[in-house]
Amino acid sequence: xxxxxxxxxxxxxxxxxxxxxxxxxxxxxxxxxxxxxxxxxxxxxxxxxxxxxxxxxxxxxxxxxxxxxxxxxxxxxxxxx
Amino acid sequence: xxxxxxxxxxxxxxxxxxxxxxxxxxxxxxxxxxxxxxxxxxxxxxxxxxxxxxxxxxxxxxxxxxxxxxxxxxxxxxxxxxxxxxxxxxxxxxxxxxxxxxxxxxxxxxxxxxxxxxxxxxxxxxxxxxxxxxxxxxxxxxxxxxxxxxxxxxxxxxxxxxxxxxxxxxxxxxxxxxxxxxxxxxxxxxxxxxxxxxxxxxxxxxxxxxxxxxxxxxxxxxxxxxxxxxxxxxxxxxxxxxxxxxxxxxxxxxxxxxxxxxxxxxxxxxxxxxxxxxxxxxxxxxxxxxxxxxxxxxxxxxxxxxxxxxxxxxxxxxxxxxxxxxxxxxxxxxxxxxxxxxxxxxxxxxxxxxxxx
Lengths: 81, 357
Fold this sequence. Notes:
The structure holds 2 protein chains of 2 kinds.
Chain A (H helix, E strand, L loop, with lengths): L6 H12 L12 H4 L4 H15 L14 H12 L2
Chain B lengths: L3 E9 L3 E4 H12 L5 H17 L4 E4 L8 H15 L9 E4 L11 H9 L5 E4 L6 H14 L6 E7 L1 H6 L10 H4 L11 E9 L5 E9 L7 E3 L18 E3 L1 H22 L9 E4 L4 H10 L13 H4 L6 H11 L8 E8 L3 E8 L1
Parallel strand pairs in B: 4-5, 4-6, 11-12
Antiparallel strand pairs in B: 1-7, 1-8, 2-3, 6-7, 8-13, 9-10, 12-13
Helix pairs in contact in B: 1-2, 3-4, 8-9
């Protein structure tokens, strides 16, 4: 079974979690560096994503400083493991 | 201009290392027991993951307070730095203790410490500028040295947060998941001590400039106070926990406001940001540091080669001097290297110091 979600859905998740206008989200955006989101809000979003979608990012992923596209690719990788 | 030189540096990190799991479990056992089972599981899971995401692996702590405690760490770094400077305790004109985790109200910490290290004459007192204490003390030292009042000034900090908590019988509680976020800042706290001897500038390890920006309107964003003290704040009428912090709010303010302060400092001091070799921000985690560097358009290659946060946690006012001392010990700084130190502290205060090594 394909556990992938679309990038559009992934953007909606973060838009909802962080209250960001979805138009600002694309593959190349870095949420932490470019959208003024503080690190703890982003951390809370990552924890919620992990819990709701049953994935777990590894330390070496350095997920906090990835672009949204990179985070999406890692997310699908772990969803399909 | 501060016109100071760092004559000697020393540091000490206690032997204990507590993992994220161990510190969260400790706090869960001591403070989270009022929560419902499901909430407790969610909170402990969330705290552990939070710490993982913020790239902290362990924090240092004193395992046995009989062998390693705040005063012993302070005494050790003070004696070490005096020896490294090739002077004696009698040559110290002024000792300033600057630690946040200061368990002594009377007498002051510096009075005890000066006795421990054998200062007979001289002057000694404490200052409290929270995590900015060490950088602020540099500015204070320059006032004394540049007026000719003192020649050798010894700055000491010793941070042993868990020792302060363990010494108190007070056990506040986390009553709900909503308030848990505001009572988890101590999960980052690490322990360590550092000392520095400052003299007038001799053309080496020169502290050239210091600058700061303060805003007291959000003084209640981070609190570490006597339990049950009455607070003049709309948010907390009676503090029911020894510490409380709006971590998200603080991180957001730092990321938003600090770049502007840094720009202003660089312009005022006529420092070209591209010529700076290293930038060392008070250790609140790489994410905040990298965010700030990104905003001031500085390549993250300039991040200081020592990261104390990952292994030792947030050591308060000891973060920066410990990092400098480790870099010096490992030969990571060459003569002529320029280092921009960035401090941030509850209150809120942003500060910067510029050193030519």
